[in-house]
Amino acid sequence: MLPRLLILALASATAYAGGADLYVPRCPSTATAKFTTQIPSGNPCPPTTVDLCYTNKDLSLVFTAYGETNYYFDPTQETNGDIWEYEVMEAFIYKGSDAPQTYLEYEVNPNNVTYNAFVYNPSRDRAPGTPFDHAFITDPFGDGFTVNTVLNKSKGTWQSSTTIPLALFNGENPRGTVWRMNFFRTITSPSTYPNQQLCGWKNTGAASFHITKPFGKLIFV
Ligand SMILES: *[C@@H]1O[C@H](CO)[C@@H](O)[C@H](O)[C@H]1NC(C)=O
Ligand SMILES: *[C@@H]1O[C@H](CO)[C@@H](O)[C@H](O)[C@H]1NC(C)=O
């Protein structure tokens, strides 16, 4: 087994020395982030994929949840409600190469309801006693976001297709730019709520999504 420091050095070399975790192409080609494990335990999660591509104006994300059995949401919750208490798929998005202190938190649930906020997390890990705040995007569809959600209960899937305006990140015509992102999925059911399985692309090492150093590095090509 490699010493921990060496592993950390290798991990940061992968993240920063020119390489990327994902090379995002212009639409209609896509690159896929796939994850199958829980945060932080690494225990199995039903698979989740996020297919990404860009146009000059928008980032396209197609979230697909496999092995879904619960489709659990609160039907009274609307845009920017606390949908993360139930089942959601999420993207944390930042344009830039460093570990962000502010980033978009985007979520969608099986009821096609979305959560859209910029997070202010100056400690980068939601450290106790430090600020942690959300600035909501109050009119996402007026701003140009789109979303469409299709459930297939016989197949055990739900798929949400989203576009997010790149202008939100001062990121139009993004070819050649570097981004940091992480993707998540929460799983719960009427019998386990409010406990959740937390599934994620890059393991944050804690039962929290708001730890930005492990975010993946993406290059738009
Ligand atoms: C999902 O919500 C968006 C925004 O309100 C709407 O445009 C779209 O038609 C909805 N799709 C479904 C399948 O409900
Ligand atoms: C759901 O998936 C099944 C199996 O792949 C497929 O036959 C069916 O057409 C799908 N239903 C919808 C509504 O897409």
UniProtKB/TrEMBL annotation:
- The answer to whether the entry has keyword Signal is yes
Q: Which Gene3D superfamilies match?
A: 2.60.40.1190
Q: Which keywords does this Swiss-Prot/TrEMBL entry list?
A: Signal
Q: Which branch of life, at top level?
A: Eukaryota
Question: Which species?
Answer: Coemansia umbellata
Annotated signal sequence is: 1-19
Protein name per UniProt = Carbohydrate-binding domain-containing protein
